[in-house]
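so my prof wants the structure for this chain in the tokens format not the other one, which i didnt know existed until like an hour ago. anyway here's the sequence
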Amino acid sequence: MKTRPVPNDPAGRRRLLLALPAAAMLAAGCAVGPRYVPPADAAPAAFKEAPTAAGWLPATPGDALDRGPWWQRFGDAQLDALAERVQLSNQNIAVAVAAYAQAQALVREQRASLLPALSASGSGRRSGPVRSGDNAARPTNAFSAGLTASWEPDLWGRLRLSVQSASASAQASQADLASARLSAVAALTTNYLQLRATDAEIALLDRTLEGYERSLTITRNRYDAGIAAQTDVLQAQTQLVSARSDRAGLVRDRATLEHAIAVLVGVPPAAFRIAPVADWRPVVPAVPLALPGELLQRRPDIAAAERAMARANAQIGIARSAYFPSLNLSASVTGSASRVGELFNASNLLWALGVSAAQTLFDGGAIAAQVDAAGAAYQGAVASYRQTVLTAFQAVEDQLSATAALGEQEGLLRQASQAADLTEQQILNRYRAGQVNYTEVVSAQASALSARRSLLTVQLSRQAAAVALIQALGGGWEADWLRVPADVARASSAR
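here's what i got, hopefully its the right format
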């Protein structure tokens, strides 16, 4: 490295300023990484189970898909309020938010490596003899200051590929955040709907218990009158106590659901309560169905898997760049003087320009092994992506078939419940008239209660299937960065 005074070489400074853009232009055209092209997906033209669910799911265009608060489709104001609380206070979402923020910071850190680094230094020292006297040397001052700049030109695209890899990781973290939000809100919605169905079942048992208590009174009166046997009274008591036991179990289940909802909204269960409702009217929303190809842009787990492929592809280029030499440019200006005011005088300044290069000559195949490992990691990411897509298609198909079957079941169970109610009333009237024994009353009442509870269960199952279908479709989430450019899409199709 050669040093000389600064002010006497303006031409050298001009050459340096012209050389820097030239080096940057050279760096822009020497990337060694493979171009990333998403793998072609054999997406079906339509879902297999869509026709069977057509009676429940309206055929709407893809652009009408709800990209907003999908939980509002269930028409429950308290559910809407809880869903907003979940997105603000759920700790799993908070973890995903922090991970996304960390990934964004890493992107900024990688981008900073593309720019020159500038540092400043300074020092001051005062020295002299321990004892002072007429013949002793006087204390002296020494000050120095300097600026140093360094830059690693991205000749082979390693730094830019590192930025691309970090960006892909950040986008995957964004998709993970969307997935965490979707999972938390879906869990809240499912638990809340199940809690409301439990409220309805408790109310149903309360009405049933009133009927059982009246039946017990009737049998006691008939037994006291000598018309009925004591076994009738015992059967009525058994049925009443069993129903009370079922109600106690439902109360326990409701408390468990309430505790789960409290944790989802980020509060201790002791400080959270949802008032029960007796009049539950289940709303089963119509969920607009996306095309299979649109599913790839609407499911956050698919988006995260695709970004993992992009990150693995960038790592191949980073590994390949180790075959080529690295270059580092540096420049510095330093000054030294006995007074601070003289530090920046031209006569006290020195400048220096430096360049260094490094090249691996022999590594026993280590770089080749790293390139092979990066390629294998990319193939693994491709396989994981395709498996994620297949699993997503399966989830949608499962929920579509469940939706169709549950819709049919509800209609049949409603008819069965109505018939059981009529049978119960007729058998009870015949018992009062002395035409049948009480065993038939117990059987009719048990059948009627079972039919009512089965109807409630299938109504809840339809709502749960709607939540699961919305979750399988991605919950309205879509990433702009997953819109593949036309030229990349053509390349992908040609593979």
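also thought this was worth mentioning. Confidence is low (pLDDT under 50) at residues 1-8, 10-29, 54-67.
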